[in-house]
Amino acid sequence: MIRKVVYSIFLAIIVLSLVLFFAAFPFGKNKMTVGKYYIDHGVQQTGAANIVTSVVLDYRGFDTLGEVSVLFAAAAGVGVLLHMIGERRERKVKVPPNFVVRVGSRIVFPFILLFGVYIFVHGHLTPGGGFQGGSIIASGFLLLYLAYPNYKLKRGGLAAIEGLAGLTFVTLGLYGLLTPKVSFLYNFLPMGVFNTLVSAGILPIIYVAIGFKVASEFAGIIDDMICDVMCRGGEK
Amino acid sequence: MVIDKIFFTIITPIFAFAVGLSFMMIKLKVSARIERRYGPPIIQPIYNILKLLLKEENISHGVIFSLGPVIALAGSILTVLFIPYAGIKLFTGSGDLIALMYIMVIGSLGMALGAGESANPNASIGISRALTLMLGYDLPFVIIIISVVLYYHTTNLADIVAAQAHGHWTLWSLPLSAIVGFVVAYGALGEHPFDIITAPHEVATGPMVEYGGKHLGFLVINHAFHIYIEIALFVDLFLGGATNVLWFYVKMFAVFFIMMLFDEVYPRFKIDDAVRFFWKWPTIVALISLIIVLVK
Amino acid sequence: MVGGAHPILLIAVPLFFVFLIVFFSSFFKGIVKYLPIIAFGINLIVIYQLIPEVLGKGMVISTTAGFKPPLAIDIVVDRLSLILAAIGSVLGFLVAIYNVSYIDEEPQERYYALFTLLVTGIIWMVVTGDIFNLFVAFEVTSIAAFGLVGFHRDQGAVEAGFKYLVMGSIGGGMLLVGIIMLYAATGTLNMVDLAQKSVHLTFGQKFLAYSMIFIGLGIEGALFPLNAWLPDAHPAAPSSVSAILSGIMTTAAIYALYRLTNLMFDYKQIYTILLFFGLLTLIFGEVSAYFQQDIKRMLAYSTIGQTGLFFFAFALDSANGFQGSIMQIINHSVSKALLFLVTGGMILRIGSRKIEDFAGLGRKMKFSSFFLAIGAFSLMGLPPFFGFWSKLKIIFAALQNPNFFMVASVVIILLMSVVEGAYFFKLLQNMYFGKPAENLQISEAPAGILISFTILGLILIFISVYPTPIINLTHQVANDLMSKSYINIALRLGGL
Amino acid sequence: MIYYIGSLLLIAVGLYAVLVKSNLIKIIIGLNFISSGVNLLIISVGYINNGTAPIFSRLGLNPNTMVDPIPQALTLTAIVIDASELALAVAFVVLLYRHYKTLDIKKIRSLKW
Amino acid sequence: MNASLELLLATPFIGGLLAFIGGKVHRWIRNLIAIIFSFATAFEIIGYYNVTIKGIVWGKLFGSDLILQTNPITWLFLFIVTSASFLIVLFSIDDMRKEEDELKLDAYYMYLLFVEGAMVGIVLAGDLITFFMFWEIMSWTSYFLIIHGGKRSMAAGYKYIIMSVIGAYAMFLAMAMLYAKAHSLVYTDVANVLLHSSPAFVIWTIVLLAIGFFVKAAVMPLHTWLPDAHSEAPSPVSPLLSGVLIKMGAYGLFVVLYGLISVKLAGSLMPSVFSTPLLLYIIQWLAALSIVLATFLAIMQEDAKRLLAYSSISQIGYVVLGIATGTSLGVAGGLFHALNHAIFKGLLFLVVGAVIYRTGTRNLSELGGLIKKMPFSFVALLLGIIALAGVPPLNGFVSKWMIYEALLQKKEVFLLIMAFVGSTGAFLYVYRLVHSIFLGQLPKKYENVKDVPILMQIPIWVLALLTIVLGIMPGLAMNVIVKGMAFFGFKPIAYNLFGFPQGTAMGALTTINISAGLAIAFVVAWILFILFPKSRKVSQYDNYAAGQVVTEDLKYNYSYGFYMSFSRVIKPILKWSIERVYNYWVEAAKIFGDYYMRRIYTGNLETYNAYIVIVITLAAAFVLLGGKIW
Prior knowledge:
The structure holds five protein chains of five kinds.
Chain A (H helix, E strand, L loop, with lengths): L1 H22 L10 H13 L4 H9 L1 H21 L17 H23 L8 H18 L7 H21 L27 H28 L6
Chain C lengths: L8 H17 L9 H23 L1 E5 L10 E5 H24 L5 H20 L3 H19 L5 H32 L4 H7 L5 H18 L9 H7 L2 H26 L3 H23 L4 H21 L3 H32 L10 H4 L1 H15 L5 H13 L5 H30 L13 H19 L2 H16 L1 H8 L4
Antiparallel strand pairs in C: 1-2
Helix pairs in contact in C: 1-2, 1-4, 2-3, 3-4, 3-10, 3-13, 3-18, 4-5, 4-10, 5-6, 5-10, 6-8, 6-9, 7-20, 8-10, 9-10, 9-12, 10-12, 10-13, 11-12, 11-17, 12-13, 12-17, 13-15, 13-16, 13-18, 13-19, 15-17, 15-18
Chain E lengths: L4 H21 L1 H18 L8 E9 L2 E7 L1 H24 L6 H23 L3 H19 L4 H32 L4 H9 L3 H19 L7 H8 L4 H24 L2 H7 L2 E2 L2 E2 H23 L3 H20 L4 H32 L15 H15 L5 H16 L2 H25 L16 H19 L2 H13 L11 E2 L8 E2 H21 L4 E2 L26 H6 L1 H4 L3 H23 L4 H20 L6
Helix pairs in contact in E: 1-2, 1-4, 2-3, 2-4, 3-4, 3-10, 3-14, 3-18, 3-19, 4-5, 4-10, 5-6, 5-10, 6-7, 6-8, 6-9, 8-10, 9-10, 9-13, 10-13, 10-14, 12-13, 12-17, 13-14, 13-17, 14-15, 14-16, 14-18, 14-19, 15-17, 15-18, 16-17, 16-18
């Protein structure tokens, strides 16, 4: 009990000091320096209507590469941890899925996919993007897992998609080094018409790649976790 | 000059031997008298030595066994050459008091080696005791040597003797050192109560247990030298040496006579008691004397 | 490709290969294990090309997305980064060779991908010029490391991995809080820009932001008392990964601390506090190492101790201190990686991590034992090995103005060196002259392992007998740090 | 201001959970609290009073009312990182449970000193 | 000889590496390389006899130069190092043949030559950093040599290396302090800076450096490694350690005391006792205590090498005592004794090694009577012990005499008394050595023992010859020593080839007279002896045993607990052991370390997280309190 009180006091001190810090930079005040530049020039420079996307994929595109790597690392890590030695058994469930779920999922799944694709394709125009879209697609696969006990993703294909998507991203970035700007991730494609689907140069391509990548990674994670619990064979 | 030197070099050991032998003779008689016996004839030691030397049957346990007495005698002869007596200083210039201390050891080393080869445990025990006792009396001995040396600011024995001319004996100036010196010389001679080394009736005459014949004869001769060395050194250090042989002899005899008296009075020390004894009172007294010298 | 190499290749190329590994894993699995070698081989070429440029100009800046910083993220390689990136690439390359013989457990393709990602993340942390990008690289590194620590999936590995994950996540969160505090205060994320714009902050504000960043990087950088995950995680990981973790990952985090401290938080008070952290880390690491029975755990604690040492040297806040610190970093990275690689090979052969089971290995695995001895000597700081020069420099630096505290610290450092000697000699003695178990039938380590640690050992021997270039280079680095030329050169080269 | 305090409190609650809860899942939830708090903090930093989203859904929107896009981008990155950590943590918990047959962190102490 | 100092320094190192590589080809190639290179090193130093070279830059470090230099004192130590190493390599060829493991042997020769090289480096060093570097190399290479001796040598080696490292780091601290002040570690610069430093600084410097040297030289409170290490090391290594390696401590002390700070400076900094600066006086006392206590301990030993090891502590005490007197005679005596000790202790260890080679034991009570089987070894050992005991006419006497005289001149009587007692005590233990090994009765199992092979005898004879030559002609060594000391600003002492004429000291010494006198006396006595009837040789068992007949299977010898009665006397001293004090503290530190570690790395995640939170809290509190947390 004393422990908890002491911890609470500690945390109170931490929060208090941080609050005092942030009090010097009040909420709602315009603190932009670089951000202002992005808002002012982002549209001309990147051609993306969504300034956040232009920041995420263009100005700070390198961060996103890292982000993709992190996600990939997590997926690989989960794969490493939940890797199964020996045969995979058929998945067994205690209660077979409801009929409604099975039929419903068959109807909903294409729409989920479509919605996901929509989100990452329009990432440079509207809120959303590769990560969001990818997650949505992965949730569609989760639905399939719920609905069909014997549903199994083809991991080889997933890996290929994952790798190809990642390769696309890096290759696009590396190509920037060959352009006159000599800059990684340089947006070398024409800007296109503002606020249309085919605009903002390489950004949509990257987002599509990210979308596929995220979808396959999340799907892989889901597959790993479900199988680890449900398909584990005789090994201890 | 050179002839002189050679002459004295030859004569000195003989003189030393004679003196030592005479003391041995006297001792037999005197101790007999103290014990109210008649005692053997006065020249009995000479008989003894001759008998031993001329014995037909000699046994040897090995080369070093034979060499031991020889080395002992050689060491003693060498030591004698370094001790000035009656104004004659032969080698005194080439080795001072400190060197002399170590030259004296050569003889003991020879004897110890020889006795060691005899492979008799009695001999070994005797040597062990002898060496231990040596360590015992060495402590007060070096202290008084240092006191005397510091008092006269020289380690040259001849100079020390010279500085004591006209009756300025060290005995008067450093009486405490002299007393300790006496005790030490006495201990070094291995007389009662420090005769645990040979310990007659106990370990069968100690280191010499295996010796007989000419070997033992050499050791007896060596003992005569030994008596001479210890007492002569004492006389040189504390009694101012002497200008002529006779006076030197008289002084030596006086010292020896007092020693004999002690010899008859005291019982025997155990070896560790002997060491403790030497490290206690003689050392303390010697240190007091040393401090007196230092403060002066 | 104007002007030779482009530092961004240091990150992009290995990442490319990471995805290539994933791509190939489904249908061409045989090639997977060789891809990291190629990746870091290319990295080495890039480093080689960068060397003259960096040494000449002091810095090479590479922009991304075609915009100048602070608008976009830039990759900045100055001399200090170059040293660490070079160490990272070399270790990555050698450990990649090592892996070929070492890893036989499934899932291999994920291991290779994660491994490549780990090293890439480390290099990334070192060369980035943007503080949020630093955070991302930090997370790439740590998440790859979480997975790799748990790679064996046995009880210890999982426990260590989980603890590491919890602490690392807290650290990551705190680091992000610190970054956001800086962003809230300045509105920029580029380090050079931050350094310039943060001058108007009060000491208290800076200190608070700094302490948050410090927590994050300190957890990764194994500073006492934030290092409790390390002695669990480093031994639990495969030895190849341990070599990277101990050799360069903690160092990279410490590098980030150096960089940020030097750029933005250059206060005497902060340095004084860091001194204590360094000393405590040193003491607790070395003394704990002495009590270990498990060799990898011992090496892990020794890593903590070494970290404390070079962190202490850095906190001296003098040119000599910086120089000593960086020399010690080099020494530690090379030697500790060497030790982990060698012990990895030995553990592979004898199947035990207990020090007493190493008895008699000096006879059976001659090369391994020899290089183990070399590495241990260098860590102990025995001449003529490189560790001696670095320790020398640190001590000299500490005693530049010998007040009581400094002398006491030096005494502590030396005492800890004695402790270090105590456990290393115990190990060596046991290894060379201990009585081996009955009918111990083992052979020398496999070829890949042998090649990799032999090369590393030869590098160590080379810098030991010919330390002059490194001494000169680190001297320049120390001057860079002292004069904060990072800002100046970056400004001149159009970093802003 | 309340947003700052709220998000900071969220961080504190997360830390508290990590500190005192012994259930592995709760610790993971605590970690998530921390990251959510941090993300909220980031977003709050970028907010401008009466701001709009920095999206030019049509040309001619007033750029001066738009909020800072950088924190939003950062949050996006941070969320993904948090999700990755979460996935990995859950995988660890699965394995831990298999090895120790418990979810109590106090009993998972095979590695010490 | 125009070879450069670098070449001299490099020769043994190159030789070591080549020997190691050569061992892969054939063991004789290795042996040959070892012999050639050790001889080459010894040969190269001829060119530097009485040469002074001020300083050669051989490298650069942190912008300061690494310097080599040489002067006659250097030459003296070079001579000790190189010639001893050469002889030991010769001795090793046969002695180490019993080691079957060729790899160990390859490593053995490599380390042997490395140790030599490191010692050459120490001696040639012209600045402290070079000195320290080679010092450390010497430590660890010799450590590897020591642990070649088998299982028990490992514990000994461990103790050795840990203590060495502690000592080295004490030196290192002093060096670093000097560097901080002088920004250079070249002897001359350091000396300049010390001249203008505060007394406390100078004293600290000397104390710290002295700790390092004393560990290596095994001066009393820091000696505990030596008896174990020297006795457990392989036979050829022991003479290297005892004869040469511990001299490096003495050399270091000499250089620091007279190269870095002059006696005059030391005298001006602190009060003087007996006209010796206090610090030097304390050093002298430590040395004197070493002499006496180590002698007593040596008397008690039952193990031949352990006995010699304790004797080394005691003899190095004389060296340090002499060097710390600060007068020309005393320092010359100390240096000369260093040379002499290298010779006779090397000799003794080699002979004991030869005995071990033949009998396989070094337990004194198991040996005996070997004189008939190994007569040459006996004679060599006899010469060695006579020299060690400081009995004329051999070399040990001359150097001890010089030290005594120097102490007498300075009236440091208490030290002198201790030195004397140590010398007499030495007589006890050396007799023990010769008695228990060569005299007494021959155990039956050693009936077939022969003298050692010729290759092992050569080094023994060379050293034995040297004891005699230097005993009769100390002037040979004084040539070098006096010239070298002039280099360090000492007044020259008067000497001639055969000793010291009147005026050098309080007395005079002419060694030729003593030896000639002894020779003549011996011849006279011998002639007398053979004049009398010839003696008959009998068996050793044919002796007086209280009427019993002694048979060969019965051990009828007195060799265990030889000085039992003496041990009763010094029991109070024996009860008290420095080693136990050290062990106590080490154990306490271990318990403490273990305790805190268990409290900190508990394995409990909550605790670990709490650390993080505490650190953040401290930082936050620091800010909240406005930076006033401490």
